[in-house]
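Allow me, if you will, to draw on your knowledge of protein folds for a short while. I have a record of one protein: its chain in single-letter code and its fold written as discrete structure tokens. I remain grateful for any guidance, and I place the record below:
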Amino acid sequence: AAGAVGALAAAWGWFEAGWLRTRVLEVEIAGLPLELDGLRIAHLSDFHLGVPSRGRLAVERAVAWTAARKPDLVLVSGDLLARQAGEPLLRGLLAQLEPCVCVLGNHDFAQSRDPFSAPVDLTDLRPATLLADEAVELELRGLRVQVVGVDPRSYTGGRAQPEALADSTADLRILLCHFPGIARKLPAGSFDLVLAGDTHGGQIALPYPGGKLWLAHPRVRELEGIYRFPGSLLHVSPGLGTTFVPFRFFARPEATELVLHSG
């Protein structure tokens, strides 16, 4: 009986790892210019390509859904590869998303306890823009939108200061960082929108009446969804891939589109 239960649990976890959820969230951004009201930003995260997992299927479906919706901007918040073998697929997928801006995560440098990840060499993902403690300015709907990207090594080393790159004259300022904890370190009002990943929505969770027990990242306070901070809004993506084990339990992979409105 125990063996049967274990086999069923493994089968479900393997299935759920590829069971993509697509979500459109309407969010208010204080001070957003009326010209940018309705701006659509797709947020994807945590591909972890290069190892056997149904997470690859979730990534492919997420990219297809995103490309079909043609958002104004696509932002990807890190952990793109688990191994270099996934790079050709990654490049082919990112080529379908435009304009697209990415940052890397700790798994891209194998800075984790995951025995299946290995460091990769990613410095150029054109046509996508890859940022590492850098900023890029885009023109959307005739206005200036700035995206600042954090290098995960700077964040984990305590050196990240993305607020120093923020342009107060931009019409919309977005921070892209793999780690949700960056939102608590920012001076109020540095960025209008902060996008992060890393947590996989817990990846392995046990539901109970009124909530879930997250077995991965149990101490993280911003695990998935929308959080408000003074002067900014944080969205944490549940991500698309898996780490350590190729399973998800009650933590489906998700592709998210944020529709911005003037608050």
User: Anything to note?
Assistant: The chain is about 15% helix and 30% strand. The helical segments are 2-16, 55-69, 87-94, 152-156.
